[in-house]
Design brief:
It contains no helices and ten strands. It is globular. About 30% of the residues are buried.
Amino acid sequence: QVQLVESGGGLVQPGGSLRLSCAASGFTFRRYAMSWYRQAPGKERELVALISDGGVNRNYADSVKGRFTISRDNDKNTVYLEMNSLNPEDTAVYYCKAAALRTWGQGTQVTVSS
């Protein structure tokens, strides 16, 4: 069965950085585009970044362009989200997802606060 396990969240000060990881199993990881979403309290879940199956094509939400970088390691079945210049508006639970699959992980909390 499909499993996605996010990790790497935490509390960070404004301007700081975090690197999220998502370990995938139960499907042929290298054949799927992967994405990161986030959901802040009281808001809908939103797409943050998307990477193609081979890792060549990447797309970002306007709010994170230039600050976040999505990457993947198909040998390790893992997708990453490098987050820099974090601000309080980035506070949310972050989830990864495989395109066209319905499974969500448990998410990892990112809190940006001084």
